[in-house]
Specification:
single chain; 277 residues; alpha+beta; 4 helices; 25% helix; 20% strand
């Protein structure tokens, strides 16, 4: 009885051994060496053809692209506004330097590229005129925008950007859009949602984005380009302290849109400020 029970196991083991390698037919896993060679050759040719076709397709597509200007742009044609420091809620105690240090450090770090010593390397442009450049120039020149033009919000006369006195500075800039040429004389206008109007100072004067900083030619062509800035100094008084104020800044004076309800940052930006003593 024991011999009959052991035969099926021995037969199964023999079958598996023959499947892996059959010494009688010379087959390995059901195929002879020539059969394996033919099938491997087929897949080598097949996948080689697919790889070649993919490479050719990519090469043809890349020939249609410009290294300096995107062929297709899915961004909006009007710029959005952003602020620095990069916070929508600017809450701090003016009596505690540690409390507003993060805002000051962020502004100082951001303005390093606008240092006068860095901007002296760039070109002095004609105000009020678009700085159009020859298409043949692969590296475009950059107009100077010196940090010192931001006056009291430059961090030079006051290293705390007004935060120590409870009159903080906020920097407003437009997002970059290749080829943008705003018509008119774009400027920033900020309003606070409160009963009494909030006094503000703008730097440069009147909060204008000069046309000489347009158009922008793209990151590769305009490698050292820096966006023009408008600094807004919020002249808070004692009655404004310990209150949460909502401030909205818009682009005015041009054809740039600032009233799209579907995009709250298109041509405008809203942030909140609360200063405690």
């Amino acid at each position: 009885m024991s011999n009959k029970e052991e035969k099926p196991a021995e037969q199964n083991q023999s079958t598996w051994k023959d499947f892996i390698y059959n010494p009688r037919s010379g087959e390995f896993m059901g195929r002879t060496a020539s059969s394996w060679a033919l099938i491997l050759l087929f897949y080598l040719v097949f996948y080689g053809f697919l790889a070649g076709l993919f490479t050719l397709t990519m090469w043809v597509m890349l020939q249609t692209l410009d290294d300096y200007t995107p062929k297709y742009r899915d961004r909006v044609s009007n710029p959005g506004l952003v602020i620095r420091p990069r916070e929508m809620d600017i809450f701090f105690n003016r009596s505690d330097p540690l409390n507003y240090r993060q805002y000051v450090q962020h502004l100082e770090s951001f303005l390093q590229q606008y240092n006068d010593t860095e901007q002296d390397k760039n070109v002095v442009c004609t105000p009020g005129v678009y700085f159009d450049q020859d298409d043949m120039e692969t590296q475009k020149k950059v107009c100077q925008f010196k940090r010192s033009s931001l006056g009291l919000c430059s961090g030079l006369p006051d290293t705390t950007f007004g935060y120590a006195e409870g009159k903080p500075c906020v920097l407003v800039k437009m997002n970059r859009i290749i080829g943008l040429k705003p018509r008119g004389s774009p400027f920033i206008n900020c309003t606070a949602k409160k009963e009494n109007s909030l006094q503000m100072n703008y730097f440069p004067v009147e909060g204008k984005f000069d046309l000489m900083y347009f158009p922008y030619y793209g990151k590769k062509a305009h490698e050292n380009y820096v966006q023009p800035l408008v600094a807004v100094k919020l002249n808070l008084t004692g009655s404004d302290y310990n209150k949460e104020l909502s401030v909205e800044c818009k682009i005015e004076g041009s054809d740039l849109r600032n009233d799209d309800e579907r995009d709250k940052f298109l041509g405008r930006v809203t942030f909140r400020v609360k200063v405690t003593e």
